[in-house]
């Protein structure tokens, strides 16, 4: 293979390997990754290539020692091959519908692809206009995403990608701060507008949920592999109620719903064994279903106010009655 052809392929691969700000690579790290892709080259050559490429492309090196290189934050995305219409449309729809949900720092990662999307579609393209006719509405009260630190979010993502640990300082909901020598990242979950990290901490084996915006400091530990529980599986964790805050085993829920409150259950049932029976007067519907005994269930039931009366199980009925009495006391002065 001619040297010029080999060099061209290596330069393309170099551009592909460079991460976007705030991530970066040292020249030695880049040399190692190029070697893994069958492009053996010395550090001095890579440094010359980077300096040459930086004249044409938006890549830059910092002042650190050793120097780290990466794409600038506002660099345009380069696609090989160029972005087609379907891919461009998918990016535009993702940006439109994820905007209310994703933390600001993650949304900024879309910007270079949106620029490529605009180039691929253009204002006059029908697919571009079609995206203006589709919307996603959150099911419930949409809260603003919490403020987060871009560098911390980048560190957490990098640790998850590399399957290594990071050291961190974390503040819980009560304002207490704690240092962790080793955070072992397992998964990221976006729930509503909040980004959660599932991880084990230091020498403990239990999986914890950590809100990423509560990290005060995060330092990547590249040489410390993360430890993962042998039986951990993200989908199994979610399906087993990891984010539903279970109170116990599944329960047989029986409740009386006002006709209007029960209407949506005819189309979107609570469970596969749900049964709906309207009373003789037609004012209320008796709903029976096997459901998880969770805090989420309680919030959902309370959201209907007086439109729902829990009949069974008796423990849940008593709990709902106690909550209703407390709420009534709050409004006695109204």
Topology of helices and strands:
Blueprint: H1 3-17, E1 25-26, H2 27-36, H3 43-56, E2 59-61, E3 68-71, H4 85-98, H5 104-107, H6 111-121, H7 126-131, H8 150-162, E4 164-171, E5 177-191, E6 194-201, E7 208-211, E8 215-225, H9 234-239, E9 251-258, H10 259-262, E10 275-278, E11 284-291, H11 295-302, E12 308-312, H12 314-330
Antiparallel strand pairs: 1-3, 2-3, 4-5, 4-8, 5-6, 6-7, 9-11, 9-12, 10-11
Helix pairs in contact: 4-6
Oligomer state of the chains in this structure: single chain
**Mass-distribution shape:** elongated
Count of helical regions: 12
Average pLDDT number = 84
Strand content range = 15-25%
Radius of gyration: 27 Å
Q: Which structural class fits the helix and strand makeup? A: alpha+beta
- Number of structurally distinct domains: 4
Write the H/E string, N to C: HEHHEEHHHHHEEEEEHEHEEHEH
Total DSSP E strands: 12
What is the spatial order of strands in the main beta sheet?
A: 7-6-5-4-8
Largest sheet: 5 strands, antiparallel
Gap between N and C termini, in Å? 85 Å
Helix content: 25-40%
Regions with little confidence, pLDDT below 50 for 5+ residues:
none
Brief account:
This protein is an alpha+beta fold and 334 residues long.
What are the main properties of this structure?
334 residues, Arc Repressor Mutant, subunit A, 4 domains, five-stranded antiparallel sheet, four-stranded antiparallel sheet, 12 strands, elongated
């Amino acid at each position: 293979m001619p040297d010029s052809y080999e060099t061209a392929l290596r330069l393309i691969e170099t551009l592909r390997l460079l991460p976007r700000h705030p991530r970066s690579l040292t020249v030695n790290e880049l040399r190692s990754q190029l070697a893994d892709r069958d492009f053996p080259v010395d550090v001095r050559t890579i440094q010359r290539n980077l300096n040459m490429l930086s004249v044409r492309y938006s890549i830059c090196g910092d002042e650190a020692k050793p120097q780290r290189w990466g794409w600038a934050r506002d660099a345009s995305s380069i696609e090989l091959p160029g972005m087609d219409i379907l891919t461009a449309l998918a990016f535009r729809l993702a940006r439109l519908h994820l905007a209310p949900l994703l933390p600001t720092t993650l949304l900024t990662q879309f910007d270079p692809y949106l620029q490529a999307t605009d180039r691929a579609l253009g204002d006059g393209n029908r697919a571009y206009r079609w995206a203006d006719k589709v919307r996603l509405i959150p099911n419930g009260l949409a809260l603003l995403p919490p403020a987060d630190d871009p560098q911390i979010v980048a560190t957490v993502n990098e640790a998850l990608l590399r399957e290594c640990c990071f050291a961190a300082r974390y503040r819980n909901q009560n304002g207490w701060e704690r240092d962790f020598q080793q955070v072992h990242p397992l998964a990221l979950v976006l729930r509503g507008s909040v980004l959660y990290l599932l991880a084990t901490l230091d020498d403990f084996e239990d999986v914890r949920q950590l809100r990423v915006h509560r990290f005060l400091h995060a330092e990547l530990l590249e040489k410390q592999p993360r430890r993962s529980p042998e039986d951990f599986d993200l989908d199994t964790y979610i399906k087993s109620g990891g984010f539903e805050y279970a109170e116990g085993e599944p329960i047989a829920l029986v409740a009386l719903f006002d006709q209007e409150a029960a209407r949506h259950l005819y189309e979107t049932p609570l469970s596969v064994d749900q049964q709906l029976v309207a009373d003789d007067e037609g004012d209320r519907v008796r709903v029976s279903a096997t459901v998880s005994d969770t805090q989420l269930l309680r919030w959902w039931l309370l959201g209907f106010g007086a439109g729902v009366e829990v009949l069974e199980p008796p423990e849940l009925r008593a709990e709902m009655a106690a909550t209703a009495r407390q709420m009534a006391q709050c409004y006695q002065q109204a």
